[in-house]
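Dear colleagues,

As part of the handover before I leave the project, I'm documenting each prediction I ran so the next person doesn't have to rerun anything. This entry is a single chain, and its sequence is reproduced below.
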Amino acid sequence: MTLFKTTLFAVLTALSLGAWAQEATIRKNLAERLPNLPKIDEISKTPMPGLFEVRFNGTDLFYTDAQGNFLLQGSLIDTRSRVDLTEQRVNKLTAIAFADLPIKDAFTIVRGNGKRKMAVFEDPNCGYCKRFERDLVKIDNVTVHLFLYPILGADSAEKSRNIWCAKDKGKAWNDWMLEDITPAEAKCDTAPLQRNVEFGRKARITGTPTIIFADGSRVPGAIPADRIEKFLTEAKP
């Protein structure tokens, strides 16, 4: 090993040990001073010197100094690029690989050539979902995988069952969401609906609509047609 490689190895080792020691200090101090804090998943540096990200519960983000003397919750914004770094990080942590979606438990609506793809988790009694659907019909050349996600109550489960068991699921869905035509009584195997709820809980889908694009990016809440177009254009599997 040359002198240069030996020196480089020593520097990298020292940096690694230093980072480990700093993380250990933060973990120790936060655990001792705030015993009710959840278990820390990860501690990592942020672009802001001296500020560290502390991650709990998979996607909950806090910030602290190198000694764990202070704990902050909120958005870290890069004023130069005007980017919300916290939102960017949460989006990355909550991304769902499109290939991992249980498509068999959804029904599909195709508009135009259907080349662009997206998935949506929706509750039939969600007012925001109805607003979202009115914007979604303006989007062409898209395949929408619709996951019925009845989380708002018993009536949501009943309407979801009637839509899922309808001969034409897409028509029953659009009739209700766009025209307020109550889906006719229907019965069939509703195990897929329960699987959707279980999948959503594991994936931390806590509200409707929740949109998943082809690149795995997740957007919670109703967004207008122009933003749907933007995400579809930018999403690359």
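The longest strand covers residues 116-122. The CA atoms of residues 53 and 63 lie 5 Å apart.

All the best with the project,
I.
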